[in-house]
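#struct-help
A.M.: can someone run this one for me? Single chain, 282 residues.
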Amino acid sequence: MTPAILGISGPALTPQERALFLAHRPRGVILFSRNIETPAQLAALMADLRAALPEGAVLMVDQEGGRVARLKPPHWPALPAVGTLRTPEAAFAHGRALGAMVRDAGFTMTAAPVLDLRVSGASDVIGDRAITGDPETVALLGGEIARGILAEGVTPVMKHIPGHGRALVDSHVALPRVPALSDDDLLPFIRNRHLPWAMTAHVVYDSIDPARPGTLSPIVIREIIRGKIGFTGTLVSDDLAMGALSGTPAERARAALAAGCDVALYCPGDFAGNQAVLEALA
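D.P.: on it. Structure tokens below:
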């Protein structure tokens, strides 16, 4: 399989997309609100995707609860933001509800839990997507969310390793710079380093690698993510189309894998970008 997870353009797989996936065998597909209308439509799309993708490919959704939800009412229940969770029992129940919802919709993976800290004065791109600002609580409740997701047979993806909470700007729009990471930022990821997948952060950590964001930094990935945190699972980039990064889709994908990511994530669903990423990583 080509080490890329890609978005698609709309609510149905186009013949062009199908031919591309059959030719290049991507690691998986991620769906967003533009791809999801009704349960019947989604079931048909999932069947088409399974037919076009290699066996064992990932069917991923960016579903956390709160404002990050692609499966939405009236067809799917709304789950609260994790910032409202207070106990391990509530976090585990949240994870189970989330896992069951995405599994029943046909997905095998969800981009949750968020293990970033909620930091006062930082960009609200994280905000109530973070459980709290206390690292011990984030580690415990985040781990329980992941355990609940796993209990429903779905793979969780903890994010955004090694920490996005201190970023002052939204990495969807621009490149955040953080002077340094503290042990508090790393603790939730260290405590949950046994999880199977993690997603990187498009953040420059000046004290570690002032030249490159974490996603593209061999230093951050080798010394912090694989070293200090001790994560040994599958490392997927955050969306390579985000405004924090520069270069063509192919250049971004090659740089992420060269830095140490295992899988490149490219979400917009534009055919030219998908083709460029797949050809670059073939």
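A.M.: thanks! The mean pLDDT is 96.
D.P.: also worth noting: The chain is about 35% helix and 15% strand.
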